[in-house]
Write a structure and sequence with these properties.
307 residues; mainly beta; Porin; two-stranded antiparallel sheet
């Protein structure tokens, strides 16, 4: 299955690039006196002058396991298609859905044959932008969003939930390690809060800083959950603390102007809190003896098309 998905991603990337090989035909340009030039560029969307008006992207990812907060929510592979529209380089709307590709891989519990069936449907609305902070701090990326997560009604003991998310990141400054801080607030299921702080650095393997073709980004992240978050995931009662530590390596290949492929491998474990580590071991163990440990290796590939 993984080989088939990988080959399909490469074929789709090749078709998308071939369709835009004649750039003169792909670009649409018009000029309005007194208003400037309005144009469409593949991978960058529609702009007016220097102002981006509308851009879109679609993607599909394959993950070897369904992971949440460093624990296993599905022991077998999943496929996640997604799409997003961005307006004025600020506001965006997105949608994504998780599909099981094997039998009996529901999000906790016995739900029968799940192969080919979707388990969650997420609708997202948010604002995101990148700010120039000068040579010292480089660029600050800000992403704030609201997610409504609809669960397929086979999950009789679980209802829909909503999330508020904030993510901040620094890049291209004088600091070699680039930090990312992500905060998630669950509004319905358990009203818990999860925070993740990560440090990483991107290496250009092919190309240069102006136009990187192949990059490799290793990172390490540490999660923290309050008592509501850890209790909601059956890791501990009334005990919050340091949750998953994740070491990750990700490759990104810019196939052409509007197509990129990614691949990653990751390792997660609960290193710093014994009670939560025991809870993670028990939570994972619900999938069988092959998962009865607090650590997990996993990976995946993804394809993104920008319009």
């Amino acid at each position: 299955m993984k080989k088939t998905m990988t080959m399909a991603a490469f074929c789709a990337a090749g078709i998308a690039c071939a369709a835009l090989a004649d750039e003169d035909k792909a670009n649409g340009v018009s000029y309005t006196p007194g208003e400037g030039i309005s144009f469409y560029t593949p991978g960058e969307g529609i702009s007016f002058g220097e102002q981006k008006i509308l851009s879109a992207e679609a993607g599909i990812s394959f993950d070897s396991k369904y992971m949440t907060y460093g624990v296993i929510d599905g022991k077998d592979p999943i496929v996640t298609p997604s799409a997003q529209l961005t307006f004025l380089d600020w506001a965006y709307l997105g949608v994504s859905s998780i599909f099981d590709v094997t039998k009996g891989n529901g999000k906790r519990g016995e739900y029968g044959n799940r192969a080919g069936k979707w388990t969650t449907l997420d609708a997202t609305v948010g604002i995101a932008h990148e700010f120039e902070l000068g040579e010292t701090f480089g660029k600050l990326s800000v992403d704030a969003n609201y997610i409504y997560e609809y669960l397929r009604r086979h999950h009789s003991d679980m209802g829909d939930t909503q999330y508020l998310n904030l993510e901040l990141g620094l890049s291209d400054g004088i600091f070699w390690l680039e930090p990312t801080l992500a905060i998630e607030r669950d509004l319905m299921a358990d009203e818990g809060t999860y925070v993740n702080f990560a440090l990483g650095h991107g290496f250009t393997l092919i190309g240069d800083e102006e136009e990187a073709v192949l990059t490799f980004t290793p990172s390490v992240g540490q999660g923290f959950g309050d008592k509501h978050r850890t209790r909601g995931y059956e890791l501990a009662n009334d005990h919050g603390g340091l949750m998953d530590t994740t070491i990750k390596g990700e490759f990104e290949w810019a196939v052409c102007a509007n197509v990129s492929l990614t691949a990653y491998v990751a390792y997660s474990d609960y290193w710093f809190d014994r009670r939560l580590r025991d809870g993670a071991r028990e939570y994972n163990g619900a999938w069988g003896s092959s998962c009865d440990h607090s650590w997990t290796f996993y990976g995946g590939v993804g394809l993104t098309l920008k319009f």
